[in-house]
Amino acid sequence: xxxxxxxxxxxxxxxxxxxxxxxxxxxxxxxxxxxxxxxxxxxxxxxxxxxxxxxxxxxxxxxxxxxxxxxxxxxxxxxxxxxxxxxxxxxxxxxxxxxxxxxxxxxxxxxxxxxxxxxxxxxxxxxxxxxxxxxxxxxxxxxxxxxxxxxxxxxxxxxxxxxxxxxxxxxxxxxxxxxxxxxxxxxxxxxxxxxxxxxxxxxxxxxxxxxxxxxxxxxxxxxxxxxxxxxxxxxxxxxxxxxxxxxxxxxxxxxxxxxxxxxxxxxxxxxxxxxxxxxxxxxxxxxxxxxxxxxxxxxxxxxxxxxxxxxxxxxxxxxxxxxxxxxxxxxxxxxxxxxxxxxxxxxxxxxxxxxxxxxxxxxxxxxxxxxxxxxxxxxxxxxxxxxxxxxxxxxxxxxxxxxxxxxxxxxxxxxxxxxxxxxxxxxxxxxxxxxxxxxxxxxxxxxxxx
Length: 450
Prior knowledge:
By secondary structure, this protein is mostly helical.
């Protein structure tokens, strides 16, 4: 289940582009990508399961206002504003568009519009059903997808194959200048750390239904299953990156074109059809899960409206954004990602530290999160074109918009920890998060029933 939750659209399109753009620096770039795209989501799952709360509960430890706004931004970014439109667009690029090419129909804006309309109509139909259809599809889909990708990897790496001899690609731009930090940044764009904080409570509930009732049992089971999912993700990412590095022709930055070319070259027309069907189902399942999560959260946060209107409105917004194209979606969401990721990663690390303490911390939650939020805002502003704050910080010689927030936030966190130890603050935070866990449980219960 964890692998199925994490393996979405970005997990398909980013690694091939990374492999084609990295050249001789592929090991370093791939290492950075796995750190932020695999290890950090694993830590996020462990943090959430150790705390027994989802992102709502974790965020409320910082403060009530932060506890309201931060989860809202996370749900919107991985839901109707980015995650859902992205899977619809990727399913078009990897499934519908190749099929249209096989039957001699030229793709156009009308094709994307019809595809996305049908895609979201089916998504809404499945999400409104009380049966767990998405779960049942996922149990069949994931092994099938892994099997087909394994075949694609094997064919691509065969000696003498059209793409098996390599392409001699050179590292491009930032991949050549800063391969490790570039890989770290590309791992951000999978959004899996954000997804882990949202889906973590679903993991907790599933484990409790299987008889893991104590916090220790839940944490151990979630950690073991998380390790399995992480190993699978790392293996698939490595294979996809190598496919991109060994596929000739397409633009190195276009992951969809690289994967489509590799599929056609390695598996032929029948393979393209099979691969397109599996990708379409994978994206559909992801879309159902994300829209259901958003609608469940929204119907609990704003009790005046029910689950169905939130689902329909979110699907309509996703439909509109999907027709703007993937590059436009990435341009819109990238600043928000640069803002949310430092905050989310900091909150996850603090939660792991808090698990080792006799009780909840205070300053360690507020100070480093505030620092990460401020520095993340600098990176987000730089991404949209206002580089004045970033240029001022760059005079320090250690700042960059990707990872410049890490050392300052770590330093602030250590000072805050010393402050908590000195003042004996090993008790529940001052902010009132009473009822938070109950609200999270209501969201999960609503999603499970639906």
